[in-house]
Inverse folding.
């Protein structure tokens, strides 16, 4: 049982964005950056033009836009390692995936709680990563609905090499359960960002998903 702990950045203005990024970049090698347009998600984050991350840090973008492919050029120019768009968004996903892969960028699809994984199966060959969403779009917190682990199981059965992430309600009490359920990347927002000791919260999660079972004699 092991999973990558990936702190989330969700900010409505450049100052908050900088503070959140600097807070977690001290210890995290991978970050999950939320972008919301105020339509698909009820909140609005910093625009694409104000997104940045420190050198040496892997950046995954979670684009909560109703029409994300209107911004393909800007997103690709940022040069992240991964761009997640929603299965419920509008536009030509296959064309976007082709352009992203040509630029050396991985492509992910996020599924809202009510969206079944079967809807993305026709395009699964073009998908590198699936984000199982269990929170409230555009907000830290929410509940980790472990019933949604059924989506993870289904996706892994269809494409075993697929990287699967989780977003929503992750804490030190459920991280091990999510990792044991097949989640590869735990995207963690409030538990780290709102902690009195963010590094300590991050390390607690690391420890919880890398526990070696004790063998009883």
């Amino acid at each position: 049982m092991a999973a990558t702990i990936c702190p989330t950045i969700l900010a409505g203005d450049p100052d908050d964005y900088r503070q959140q990024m600097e807070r977690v970049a001290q210890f995290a090698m991978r970050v999950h950056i939320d972008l919301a347009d105020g339509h698909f998600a009820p909140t609005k984050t910093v625009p694409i033009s104000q997104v940045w991350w420190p050198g040496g840090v892997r950046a995954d973008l979670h684009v909560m836009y109703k029409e994300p492919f209107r911004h393909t050029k800007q997103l690709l120019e940022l040069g992240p390692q991964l761009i997640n768009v929603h299965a419920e968004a509008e536009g030509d996903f296959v064309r976007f995936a082709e352009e992203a892969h040509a630029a050396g960028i991985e492509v992910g699809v996020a599924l809202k709680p009510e969206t079944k994984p079967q809807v993305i199966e026709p395009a699964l060959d073009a998908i590198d990563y699936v984000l199982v969403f269990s929170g409230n779009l555009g907000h830290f917190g929410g509940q980790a609905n472990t019933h949604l682990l059924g989506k993870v199981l289904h996706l892994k059965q269809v494409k075993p090499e697929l990287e699967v992430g989780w977003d929503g309600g992750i804490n030190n009490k459920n991280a091990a359960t999510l990792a044991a359920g097949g989640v590869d990347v735990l995207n963690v927002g409030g538990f780290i960002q709102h902690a009195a000791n963010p590094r300590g919260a991050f390390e607690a999660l690391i420890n919880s998903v890398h526990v070696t079972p004790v063998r009883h004699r």
Observations:
- The first helix runs from residue 14 to 25.
